[in-house]
Inverse folding.
């Protein structure tokens, strides 16, 4: 090798080391940059077990409000834009649900909740359960039976969980199926 080639190689070597250092630093910045949002996200949300405990407590408060026809307690659980689809298929907003509760025409004497499942999607919790209840509705009609329901909670900007949606479906007992009428 000539002296000129050695000199050129010596000049290239520091440049290639500098280039590899740049790549290492760039990779480190990318890793740190991608880890920061994950760290910030984990700091801004409650641990899953704490949120689950909060939802369980709210579900118990909802049950107590229903059993005691406590519209004040129910009002604190529902969001202002609350929407319900009742087991009879009617829509209710917050005020309608509270007015229905204030009316003494409905009387629930027993409400047993089972098979509760809670799933979280960021600041949203979806609860599904089985409710066995005994009671009467307006006009004394019997509402005793088993119901499946879905309740959706959203954490508001102050960090409080509020019910935004509810839907209930009555579980029908299996029985003989009706055959469709044939038309001549």
């Amino acid at each position: 090798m000539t002296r000129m080639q050695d000199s050129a190689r010596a000049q290239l070597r520091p440049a290639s080391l500098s280039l590899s250092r740049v790549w290492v630093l760039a990779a480190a910045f990318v890793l740190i940059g991608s880890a920061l949002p994950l760290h910030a996200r984990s700091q801004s949300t409650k641990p899953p077990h704490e949120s689950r405990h909060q939802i369980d407590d709210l579900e118990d408060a909802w049950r107590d409000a229903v059993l005691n026809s406590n519209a004040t307690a129910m009002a604190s659980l529902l969001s202002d834009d609350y929407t319900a689809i009742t087991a009879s298929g009617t829509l209710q907003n917050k005020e309608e649900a509270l007015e229905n509760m204030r009316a003494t025409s409905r009387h629930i004497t027993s409400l047993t909740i089972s098979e509760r499942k809670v799933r979280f999607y960021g600041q949203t919790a979806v609860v599904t359960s089985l409710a066995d209840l005994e009671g009467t509705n307006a006009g004394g009609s019997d509402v005793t039976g088993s119901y499946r329901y879905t309740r959706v909670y959203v954490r508001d900007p102050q960090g409080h969980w509020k019910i935004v949606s509810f839907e209930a479906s009555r579980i029908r007992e299996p029985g003989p199926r009706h055959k469709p009428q044939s038309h001549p």
